[in-house]
Design goal:
CATH class of the largest domain: Alpha Beta
CATH topology of the largest domain: Dipeptide-binding Protein, domain 3
Number of domains: 2
Helix content: 25-40%
Number of strands: 20
Shape: globular
Strand content: 15-25%
Distance between the termini: 29 Å
CATH superfamily of the largest domain: Dipeptide-binding Protein, Domain 3
CATH architecture of the largest domain: Roll
Largest sheet: 12 strands, mixed
Structural class: alpha+beta
């Protein structure tokens, strides 16, 4: 009897120790540990374990206070924000308004970012420190959704100074946040390790040690979960869902996300690098600058076929930036119909009756079946009368910076809206690129439409939510009618967890410790 009790105690102790640790199998490694480096999902999912912003979104994308406890509008150009007291950075220094002012300023210009945060702070004219826990943000124009924007900036200590670099974060010496976990180690290409912050303001973290393992191959992630070398995995391909169904030791979780997968077309220059005539010779004129060509390419895409055959149903065909239920969604905007006859007609009207040549580019580990998606796109464009010279895919941490540096002509990308409306996404992806104004920071194709910009600007300054959403819907109609991008689908995402762990499926797609918990 004594032996049985001893063995039981040993088992419970081992179980307790194991539950205090968690290893998450991630599909994509962060580009940088610098929390202000970019707004790309792989960067945010790592940073938000160690750094915090003024607000945070739950798995249903509802706003909650974080480092800010309340905020109010003083006048149309001034917001007053009350900050949480008693918060300490990982080095023991207190969090104050000076840290917020410093972080908002630094977010404007972090070099070499593949997803700049400048659009989030573009309207911030100046910050005013009222007292250590009160800050006022003065804006150039009225910004009704300020907390959706500036409120998302991760806060770092002002003591880091103006000369801190992304390299300092990557080396670990600048990794000082207020979050529930503290940085311990990064082995590039392999893992990030964190431990619990014992002085976290919101109580004891649920895990003592957290390891993020980067496993870009879906089969490797699945095998790691089944062998218990990881506890949670993300981005399960639809074809692998059956592996985890009906198992007692694994639970599946899913959510329809707000992430739009789309095709971007280079419209900002005539010397686009991967466009040719049918004989493979460079074109003197960029056909993608012609609206009729862009609409023709959109009509070559069989979105229902992509969802059914490439995604095995794990998606929803899209015809605009945000899905139903979000501000700015226009129910009249349906996905462009698959119509090769109309596509050929539009190409002929644009002066390309025999088409032209192109190479399409994409990632191979950013979202489920992204490599297969690009092969399917190549086949569809070929059937539509274009000459596809090549389909090239590469790891996302290589691909995203290259796309931002405008190295491609036709390429896939995605945007996951986090917030109450389409405003952030359209400001980043579709607004005319202006580094000074902070617009178009994610507009890698350099789409530009003055009518769209004007309506979007009015929406951004409208405090009445119903009117703002009407203007956003109008701006969406303008951009979609202009063939700004080719919307493909919104993703349905899958996670799997071993027994003892649960996932709160995040519509914003994060696989951070905000959404992974020990089973009760």
């Amino acid at each position: 009897m004594i032996r049985i009790v001893a063995l039981l105690a040993l088992f419970l102790a081992a179980t307790s120790t194991r539950a205090a640790e968690v290893t998450i199998g991630r599909a994509t490694e962060q580009n940088s540990l610098d929390p202000l480096f970019s707004d790309l999902g792989n960067d945010v999912s790592t940073a938000e374990n160690m750094f915090e912003s003024l607000i945070h979104f739950d798995s249903k994308l509802r706003i909650h206070p974080a480092l800010a406890t309340s905020w109010k509008l003083i006048d149309p150009l001034t917001w007053e924000i009350k900050l949480r007291e008693g918060v300490k950075f990982h080095d023991g220094t207190p969090f104050t308004a000076a840290d917020v002012a410093y972080s908002l300023k630094r977010a404007r210009s972090v070099p070499n970012s593949p997803g700049p945060l400048s659009s989030f702070v573009r309207s911030v004219k100046e910050t005013e420190i009222v007292d250590p826990h009160t800050i006022r943000i003065h804006t150039d124009t009225p910004v009704p959704l300020l907390m959706d924007l500036a409120g998302r900036i991760f806060i770092i200590p002002a003591a880091l100074g103006p000369d801190v670099t992304s390299a300092d974060f990557n080396a670990g010496k600048a990794m000082i946040g207020t979050g529930p976990y503290r940085f311990k180690a990064w082995l590039p290409g392999d893992r990030v390790v964190m431990d619990a912050n014992p002085e976290y303001w919101d109580g004891k973290p649920e895990f003592s040690t957290v390891t993020l393992r980067f496993l870009s191959n879906p089969a490797a992630r699945s095998a790691a979960l089944l062998s218990a070398s990881v506890d949670v995995i993300e981005q399960i391909p639809p074809s692998d869902i059956g592996i985890f169904q009906h198992r007692e030791d694994v639970t599946l979780f899913s959510a329809v996300s707000t992430r739009l997968v789309y095709v971007a077309m280079d419209q900002g220059r005539d010397d686009s690098p991967f466009l040719t005539d049918k004989d493979g010779k460079p074109l003197a004129k960029n056909p993608l600058r012609d609206r009729r060509v862009r609409l023709a390419m959109s009509k070559m895409v069989n979105r229902a076929g992509i969802v059914d055959r490439v995604l095995a149903g794990a998606g929803e065909p899209a015809g605009q930036i945000v899905p139903e239920g979000m501000g700015g969604h226009d129910p009249s905007l349906k996905p462009k119909p698959f119509d090769l006859t109309e596509a050929h007609k539009l190409l002929a009207e644009a002066g390309y009756p025999d088409g032209f040549g192109l190479t399409i580019h994409g990632s191979n580990n950013r979202f489920p079946n992204d490599s297969q998606l690009m092969q399917a796109m190549g086949q569809m464009f070929t059937r539509g009368g274009l000459k596809v010279n090549g389909v090239e895919v590469m790891p996302y941490n290589v691909y995203a910076p290259s796309a931002t540096q405008r190295k491609f002509s036709v390429f896939d990308f995605s945007y996951g809206t986090i917030g109450s409306s389409s405003l952030n996404g359209m400001t980043g992806v579709l607004a005319t690129f202006d580094a000074t104004a902070g617009t178009g920071s994610l507009n890698r194709a350099r789409y530009s439409n003055k009518e769209f910009d004007a309506v979007l600007s009015r929406a951004a300054a409208e405090f009445d939510e119903a009117k703002r959403n009407q203007l956003l819907a109008e701006a969406t109609r303008i951009a979609m009618d202009d063939g700004a991008i080719i919307p493909l689908y919104w993703q349905k995402l899958f996670w799997a967890a071993r027994k003892g762990f649960v996932v709160d499926p995040d519509r914003g797609e994060s696989t951070s410790l905000h959404f992974v918990h020990p089973a009760k």
